[in-house]
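Quick one, tokens below. Sequence please?
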């Protein structure tokens, strides 16, 4: 039976519901009470000042969620633990009535929570709590000496957190975090506060050789996996100091002012980060302790997002002193695997390598920022930055940055870039407003930043100056020049928190409807609007600045000496002639019409990464040449198609927490070499990982129709080093930390993993080095790779450990060098050098057209001989595989092609082993020629390789012989160099 109500009845029901809700809220508010804390109360119930509790802890014990606690001025020597929903307020005189909250003055009447002598933190946080108008000081605790907040929502307003110490003075391997404020898995708002003179201090002395890592992080604030909004706050005089004395290891000091990591989101608005320091000292009896300091002002790591609006980051520093190595990076800001958006921000007088900014596999965008008078400028070490409407007037810029409408202190190209003194008002007194006549006035471009750092409205036109004097130009830098004098400082509004997204890949060449195709032509004299070839941008970076998710960028053939940071959802295509029409699917030939990104004009140690990846994007038809890393991808998902990555001196491709798809990509002669042949400190360990590809942190790599040739990972010290450890792993590909690999129709040949050291070293996995994860390899040719150790033994091509792997229809061959593969790996229908138990496996010479076994020579010779790994007629690998593999080969030939009478049964349905399917009548385009015997002058000095010339091969062979003979004769090396130079001049 259903019930029907009249219109009047329904109206009464609705009114009853409304009154019930209002009554609930009203009664709840009535149930909340205000308790008082005063040294003069009798402590009976706390409802009046006369009956106030003598301690804050007693008031909390008698409170319930929603209660407010008013605390009279004075010093309270206690450590408190908040309860859910409690609000604490300080600054009272002790005579205010229930309606006199507005009469309190927290600065004139300080209420101090002091943990002196208690050896404990001051405040233990709780969910939905408020701290307002309190001084929190002299706490001592390893984490959060001032305030500790974990898995909670807190608001801290008008508070001073000062003089707290996250101290760890012990022989144990603990670390110190967040002396002023420790935040983990929480949402915290910090408003109109001061975080002053707090210190995360860690001193560790130990003979325990298992203790190899220790750190102090976040002198002022430590934030992990959390969201923080920091508004109108001063963070000053804080320090993160770590000292380690042990037999070996590394000591880290991170974030003197703020350390944020673990996918945190930090928004700083109208705040000042001033005079903070991160310092690391490491020493030991054997000289094997390294010291690393990062981010004197701010350190962000592990996918943290940082937003700064209207801030000042000034006078911060980093210091490191290690007996093994010393790295002090990012005096102002250090970003590791993170990102930053900076606007209307002043960054001045910070000290360290990358005094203003150090990007380590990270990205940062700057809009209307002023950066100057920092110790060592800005550094992109595996990262990139983009500047618009800014002033970057530091003398040192290392790495790839893009500049647009920016005053740059070094010669640099870009739309609207000027290299003229910006004329600051009074820089000696830290006044970096623009003086009259500054070339930066009215020289910017239109911006969405409508207020400057002092809340002056943008733009303010100064008639007759700037680019055209029309009135619509913005000034460069953090300050907008007024027609008379600059206004006094007025804070801007709190920044809006907008977390980024992680889209999925949808590769396509057709532009997304309603989105744009931008054109780039490096040959134009100046950039246009980029909407057609005739008005193309001059640089790829400019096109990326204008693009949004869904757009495409077409790049004309040519050489582009720039590093770029891709954008989420934006696809890049190279190999264009420059006449293709928008809206049509063009026919490109990327190998004929070469679009090259290169850093060949820079010294090796100054070369940056060429391409920083993004999410949901395609990178297609480019040649990446002579960078540090060719491509870097952190927390992204990319599709890389038809590219050549060659002669990079970091990795060809490096990625972490990412999904990368490769199709038709070639990696040639990329080198990850670590170490130098001159004296170094004792007991240093050198790791060289992944010459062509290096992946970590649960990433996924899927490679189809790819070639990895002549790449190398080499850790070396030669005979000059004493007691150094050298480790070379994965000449072509190295994956660790449970990363997954799929290879189909790939050739991995002539790659080297090598280690040279006086004391101990090992080379592993000349072709592949896989630790953990799930892997599948189909129809691949893995041959001619080698792993060399200091005793000159040649080890495995493939190293697989603690992993699940299936290898089918493949060839693993190196004339007896073998493999190092765990038992239990599923290998079937493969030709394995040395044999491996499994269905259809064979151990017979595969009969390549041209096997280059001495792979080590490829990494020294200028002439690159790739070999030919197709199968000769009569190869036992023809028609001997299963039908479970790829349906075409590396050259696009359909499988199977039956060669009658050979293979397992000659029925016509068998695949060939390896990456290449053998045709019925051989390869008509190839006629192998016998190797010529060189004519060698028997008396030619230093021709160690006996090939009639003096080159890099002879250098390495000579050093190897001298090491074997224990004959470190510097005069011999001098004579060799002289002979080599004479030969080259001939």
């Amino acid at each position: 039976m259903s019930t029907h109500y009249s219109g009047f009845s329904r109206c009464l029901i609705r009114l009853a519901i409304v009154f019930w809700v209002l009554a609930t809220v009203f009664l709840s508010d009535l149930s909340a009470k205000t308790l008082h804390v005063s040294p003069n109360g009798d402590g009976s119930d706390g409802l009046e000042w006369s009956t106030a509790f003598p301690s804050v802890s007693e008031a909390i014990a008698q409170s319930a969620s929603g209660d407010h606690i008013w605390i009279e001025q004075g010093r309270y020597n206690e450590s408190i633990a908040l309860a859910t929903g409690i609000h604490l307020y300080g600054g009272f005189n002790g005579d205010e009535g229930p309606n006199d909250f507005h009469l309190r003055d927290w600065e004139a009447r300080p209420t101090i929570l002091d943990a002196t002598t208690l050896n404990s933190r001051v405040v233990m946080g709780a969910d939905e709590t408020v701290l307002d108008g309190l001084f929190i000081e002299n706490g001592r605790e390893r984490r959060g000496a001032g305030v500790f907040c974990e898995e909670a929502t807190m608001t801290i307003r008008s508070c001073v957190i000062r003089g707290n110490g996250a101290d760890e003075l012990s022989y144990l391997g603990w670390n110190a975090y967040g002396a002023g404020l420790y935040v983990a898995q929480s949402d915290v708002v910090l408003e109109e506060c001061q975080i002053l003179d707090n210190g995360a201090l860690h001193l560790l002395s130990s003979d325990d050789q298992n203790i190899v890592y220790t750190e102090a992080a976040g002198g002022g604030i430590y934030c992990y996996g959390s969201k923080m909004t920091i508004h109108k706050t001063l963070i000053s005089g804080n320090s993160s100091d770590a000292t380690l004395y042990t037999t070996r290891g590394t000591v880290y000091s991170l974030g003197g002012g703020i350390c944020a990591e673990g996918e945190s989101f930090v928004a700083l608005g109208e705040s000042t980060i001033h005079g903070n320091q991160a310092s690391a000292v490491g020493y030991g009896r054997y000289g094997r302790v390294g010291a690393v300091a990062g981010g004197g002002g701010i350190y962000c790591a592990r996918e943290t997002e940082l937003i700064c609006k209207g801030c000042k980051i000034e006078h911060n520093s980093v210091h490191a002193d290690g007996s093994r190595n010393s790295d002090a990076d990012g005096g102002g800001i250090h970003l590791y695997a993170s990102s930053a958006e900076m606007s209307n921000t002043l960054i001045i007088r910070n000290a360290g390598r990358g005094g203003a900014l150090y990007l380590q596999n990270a990205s940062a965008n700057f809009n209307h920022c002023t950066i100057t008078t920092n110790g060592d400028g800005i550094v992109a070490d595996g990262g990139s930055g983009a500047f618009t409407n800014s002033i970057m007037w530091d003398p040192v810029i290392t790495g790839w940055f893009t500049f647009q409408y920016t005053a740059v202190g070094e010669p640099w190209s870009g739309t609207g870039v000027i290299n003229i003194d910006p004329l600051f008002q009074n820089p000696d007194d830290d006044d970096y407003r623009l003086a009259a006549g500054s070339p930066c006035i009215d020289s910017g471009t239109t911006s969405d930043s409508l207020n400057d750092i002092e809340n002056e409205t943008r733009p303010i036109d100064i008639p007759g100056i700037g680019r055209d004097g029309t009135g619509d130009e913005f000034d460069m830098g953090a300050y907008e020049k007024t027609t008379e004098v600059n206004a006094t400082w007025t804070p801007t509004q709190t920044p809006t928190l907008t977390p980024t997204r992680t889209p999925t890949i949808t590769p396509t060449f057709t532009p997304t409807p309603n989105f744009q195709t931008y054109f780039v032509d490096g040959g134009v004299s100046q950039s246009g609007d980029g909407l057609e070839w005739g008005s193309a941008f001059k640089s790829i970076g400019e096109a990326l600045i204008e693009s949004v998710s869904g757009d495409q960028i077409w790049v004309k053939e040519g050489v582009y000496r720039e590093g770029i940071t891709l954008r989420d959802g934006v696809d890049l295509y190279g190999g264009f002639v420059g006449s293709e029409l928008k809206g049509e699917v063009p026919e490109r030939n990327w190998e004929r019409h070469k679009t090259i990104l290169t850093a060949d004009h820079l010294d090796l140690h100054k070369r940056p990464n060429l391409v920083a990846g993004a999410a949901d994007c395609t990178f297609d038809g480019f040649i990446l040449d002579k960078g540090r890393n060719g491509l870097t991808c952190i927390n992204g998902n990319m599709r890389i198609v038809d590219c050549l990555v060659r002669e990079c001196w970091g990795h060809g491709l490096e990625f972490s927490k990412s999904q990368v798809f490769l199709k038709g990509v070639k990696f040639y002669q990329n080198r990850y070499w670590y170490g130098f042949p001159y004296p170094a400190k004792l007991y240093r360990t050198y790791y060289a990982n992944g010459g062509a590809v290096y992946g970590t942190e649960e990433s996924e790599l899927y490679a189809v129709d790819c070639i990895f040739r002549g790449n190398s990972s080499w850790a070396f010290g030669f005979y000059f080093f004493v007691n150094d450890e050298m480790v070379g792993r994965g000449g072509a590909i190295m994956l660790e930390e449970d990363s997954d690999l799929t290879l189909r129709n790939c050739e991995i040949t002539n790659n080297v993993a090598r280690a040279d050291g006086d004391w101990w070293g090992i080379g592993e996995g000349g072709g592949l080095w896989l630790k953990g994860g799930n892997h599948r390899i189909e129809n691949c040719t893995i041959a001619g790779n080698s792993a060399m150790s200091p005793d000159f033994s040649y080890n495995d091509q493939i190293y697989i450990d603690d992993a699940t792997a299936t290898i089918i229809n493949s060839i693993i061959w190196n004339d007896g060098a073998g493999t190092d593969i765990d038992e239990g790996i599923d290998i079937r229908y493969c030709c394995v050098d040395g044999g491996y138990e499994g269905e259809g496996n064979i151990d017979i010479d595969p009969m390549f057209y041209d096997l280059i076994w001495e792979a080590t020579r490829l990494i020294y010779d200028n002439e690159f001989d790739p070999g030919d790994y197709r199968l000769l007629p009569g190869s036992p690998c023809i028609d001997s595989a299963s039908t479970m593999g790829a349906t075409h080969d590396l050259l696009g030939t359909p499988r199977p092609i039956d060669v009658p009478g050979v293979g397992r049964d000659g029925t016509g349905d068998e695949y060939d082993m390896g990456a290449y399917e053998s045709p019925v009548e051989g390869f008509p385009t190839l006629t192998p020629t016998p190797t010529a015997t060189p004519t060698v002058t028997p008396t030619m000095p230093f021709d160690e390789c006996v090939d009639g010339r003096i080159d890099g091969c002879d250098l390495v062979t000579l050093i190897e012989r001298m090491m074997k003979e224990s004959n470190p004769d510097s005069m011999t090396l001098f004579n060799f160099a002289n002979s080599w130079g004479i030969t080259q001049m001939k």
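The CA atoms of residues 301 and 674 lie 24 Å apart. DSSP finds five helices and 85 strands in the chain.
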